[in-house]
Amino acid sequence: MKEPSKRQNSAARHEAIDVSDFVYAATGARVRRLTMPDGSHWFPAVDVCKELGHTNSRKALADHVPDEHREMLETVTGGYGLGVPAGRGWRRDLHIISLQGLILLVNACTKPACAPFKQWVAEVIETVQREGSYSLDEAEVQPAEAGAPIAYAMPDQVAEAIVRLEAHNLRLDEELAEGQRTSIALQREMLTTQQATLATQQAGLAAQQATLAVQQAMVRALERIADRFDTLVLPRGTAVGHPAPAPTTESVLADWRQRLSVTEDVWTVALVIAPVLVATGELREPLESIAARTGLSVRRVNECLRLLRRHACIRSRGGSEDGAPVYVLHHA
Q: The Bro-N domain covers which part of the protein (predicted)?
């Protein structure tokens, strides 16, 4: 970029309209700005295009902004011996435009919000063509300090645009605040609902646990009843509610005769084990001993005992320490 041909002392320079207000009225937004030592202003092209609705910033620059009014950030700052600003997305390769380039983009914008500014620009041009110059009216109140620059009144179109934009922004702020209040209320309501749901789920879980505990207690009680029922068999003809008489060898053998038709071998074994079961309540005798007492083989004795078990005459209780089987009466 060429070195600016006209540089003025920034301390003596005075702008008739504050550049921030000027750009705000033109674009409808506060965009980033760099002000050079000579007082020239440069703006990120992407910021201006975004606020004006230009979706393709490269095409917008190529179509509406001449080369002398657009540059790279590094080129502009380097011309003044300055470095690239840090932060806020400033990059060395950032495209920036001058104030004239910004006005050219505004004139190419079709947004209704830009209309008042463009009408004022047209008025300025028409006034210059007709009268040869255009000047702002002086403000009613001037600075009291000696040597202070003259204060000018902002053009009505620019002032009205700024007032309208500020009113629009205030409405947006109010709508945003109302939306935030509504969102907070909804979040609180959702939180209350979630807490109530959680409490209901916890109560339901506690009820399920209590029901499970009751069911487990009922199962244990039924198991105890079943165990007792397996060991308690009332003799035939005994009325419920009266204690059953103590079994005798004769009553046991008579009951066994009713339960099954036995062969001679089975009855021989029954005659040997019945007295022992009645007297001691259990039979702990090796099969070899029973075989010796009955004259039967060990295998045949085992088959006879299995037959007596199958017909619920006796039942097994495992084995003794010496390995002999243990039998008891089925109702004992």
A: 16-132
